[in-house]
Amino acid sequence: MNERPLRPSALLYLARRIFRSSEASFILLAVVVGIAAGLVAAALSSIAHLFQSALYDLNFDDRLSGLAIISPIRLLALPLGGALLGAIILIVRKHKRTAIDVVEANALHGGRIPFRDTLLVSGQTLLSNGCGASVGLEAAYAQAGGGIASLIGQWLNLRRNDMRVLVGAGAGAAIGAAFGAPLTGAFYAFEIVIGAYTPASIAPVLAATIAAVITARTLGATPYLIAATSSQNLATIDYLLYAVLGLIAAMLGIALMRLVSFAEATVRHTRLPEWSRPVLGGLILMPIAMISPHALSAGHGALHLTIGGELALGMLTLIFGLKALASIVSLGFGFRGGLFFASLFLGALLGQILAGLWALIPGAVTLSPVDAALVGMAALAVAVVGGPMTMSLLVLEATHDFEITAVVLTATLCSSALVRERFGYSFSTWRLHLRGEVVRSARDVGWMRLLTARRMMRTAPATASPTLSMATFKEQFPLGSTSRVLLEDHDGYYAGLVPTASVYADTGPTDRMISELSILRDATLSPDMPIGAIMERFDESEADDLAVVDPAGRILGMLTEKYVRKRYADEIDRSQRDLYGED
C-alpha cells in the first residue's frame, strides 16, 4: 500500500523544523540564498548597463563615467530619469513610510524586510543609476540580496538571529558577486549588515558569498574589481604617511556625509514638491557632466581611467570636486542609491592628489600614486560606509598583494577610529539618525524595543483610594500581603504609590488619609516605553516600583526595577548565546 504524499503545509512544516534545528541544512540554505543573490546582482548590473547604453549610446565595453564627452542632448536623460523617479514617489507617497533597508532591518526588525520595500529600494536605485545620476548600485545589490533572504527566512519562520544572519549573507553575497570578491562580500555582511563576527555566522555567510561569486562568474558578469598593482617598495615611513592619509580621508568622509544631509534638508525647506526634486537635481547634474562625464554614475569607468593614469594634479582635483558635488546633488535632490563606489572613486582621487602634493615638497620621500590611490580608496570608503576589514580585503582581492593590504589596513583602522570618535555613524546609520533612530551599527537592538512596559508589567496591581484612612488601609492590606499599593482616585486616575511598610511604621493618628504617605506621583511609565528608557526612568526616580499608566493617566499595571533588570540581563545573555551558536 502506497504512503499518502505529504501535503504542502506538512512539507513546509518539515522544512522549517530542518532549517531551525540543523546547522548543516542552514548552510545549504545560505548557499541557495547566495545563488539567488548572484543571479540578481548580475541581472541588476546588466539592466543598469542596458539603460545607460540606450540613453547614452554606449558600446558594450564602455562605462558611462569613462566617457570623455557626452552630447548635451543625451544628458537630458538625467532630468527625464528624475521625472520617472518622481512619478514613483507620487505613486508610493500615500503609504507615508520610509522603506526599510538591510541595515535597519537587522538592527531594529530582526531581519524582516517587506518585499515591497525590497522592490522599491532596488527599483529606485536601478532607475537612478540607469539614468546616470551619481549614485552606485550597491544599495540595490545589498537590498535585493538581503530582501530575498528575508523573504525566504520569513517563509520558513526562522529564529530572529538566524534571520539576521541569512539577511546578512544575502546582502554580502550580492556585494561579493558584484565585485567578484567573496571575502569582501563576507566581511561586508559581518561588519555592515550583521554587526559582528560570530562563529554561528561564519560558515553560512562565506558559503553564500562563494556561491554568489561562482554564479555571477558562470553568467559572465563583469566584476567591479580594480585592476592595479602596488609598487612593492613599502617602508616603515609609508605606514606613517598612509596613516595620516587615513585620518584626512576620515575628515573628508565626515564632511561628505554632513553635506549630503545638509543638501537634503535645504531641498526640503524649499518646499518643492517631492516628485519634482529629482527633476531639478537632474538639471543641475547636466552642466556638471558637460565639464566632466567622470562625475556621472557610480564611477567604475572613471576609476579605471584615473587610477595610475598619471593625470595632472589640477585635473585630479577638478574631477574630485565635481564627483563630490554630483553625489551630493544626486542624493540631496532625491535620487536613490549609496556612496559605496563613489567613496571608493573619491578616495582613489584623494590618494593621488595627496601623493602629487607630497611630491612638490623638496627632498620628500617618494609616494607611489597607485599605492596612494589604493590606500585612499579604502580609507575614504571606510569613513563613509564602514568596515575596515571589508575595504582592506577588497584591496587584497584586487591586487593579491599582502604588503599593500597591511598598509591599507593601517590607514582604514585610523580612518575608522577617527570617524567613530568624531562622528559615530556610517552613511546608512547617519541617515537613520536623522530620522530619529538611535542606531550606530547593524547590531541587534530591535529586541529592546519589543520589551515594552506593556509586555513586562504585572497587571491588576493592588490599588486603593487616596482618601482611605490609615486604619482601614491596615485592615485591607496586612503587613506582608504586598510591598506597595497604587493609589487610584474616584475617576480612575493614578494618584501616587504607598509603600506598605511606611504605613505600618507611621506613628501618627490612624484616621489620617493614606495620601499623606504617597510618593512618585509624577514618576510613571507609559505602556509603549522600551526597556532602555524604563531603566533610565528607574535611575532618575530612584524608585523600586513604578506604575504603568495610559496617556490619560489611568493605571494599567506595575513594574519593579528588580524584574526589569533581570529581564534585560536574561535577554542580553540569550542574544550572546544566539550570536555564538550556543543552545
Jot down its keywords.
5% strand; CBS-domain; four-stranded mixed beta sheet; Clc chloride channel; three-stranded mixed beta sheet
How does this structure look, described?
The chain has 24 helices and 7 strands. Helix 2 (23-56) packs parallel to helix 5 (115-130), helix 10 crosses helix 17 (402-422) and helix 11 (277-291) packs antiparallel against helix 13 (313-332). With 583 residues, the protein is mainly alpha-helical. The protein is elongated. The protein starts with 7 loop residues before the first helix and ends with a helix. It is 62% helix and 5% strand. It has helices at residues 8-21, 23-56, 77-92, 102-108, 115-130, 138-155, 160-179, 182-194, 199-218, 236-269, 277-291, 300-306, 313-332, 340-359, 369-385, 388-399, 402-422, 427-434, 446-450, 453-456, 470-476, 500-505, 531-541, 561-579, and strands spanning 458-459, 463-464, 484-488, 494-499, 524-525, 545-549, 555-560.
State the gist of this model:
The protein has 24 helices and 7 strands. With 583 residues, the chain is mainly alpha-helical. It folds into 3 domains: 8-218, Clc chloride channel, CATH 1.10.3080; 236-434, Clc chloride channel; 446-574, Roll (CBS-domain), CATH 3.10.580.
Q: Determine the CATH superfamily of the largest domain.
A: Clc chloride channel
The count of β-strands is 7
Radius of gyration from CA coordinates: 29 Å
CATH fold node name of the largest domain: Clc chloride channel
CATH class of the largest domain: Mainly Alpha
Would you tell me the overall average pLDDT? 87
Query: Major sheet, described briefly?
Result: 4 strands, mixed
Distance between the termini: 41 Å
Whole-number total of structural domains: 3
What is the share of helical residues? Answer: 55-70%
Helix and strand composition category: mainly alpha
By CATH, the architecture of the largest domain is named Orthogonal Bundle
What portion of the residues fall into strands of 2 or more residues?
Answer: under 5%
- Count of alpha and pi helical runs: 24
General shape: elongated
Q: What does the oligomeric state look like here?
A: single chain
Low-confidence stretches: none
Strand order of the largest sheet: 1-7-6-5
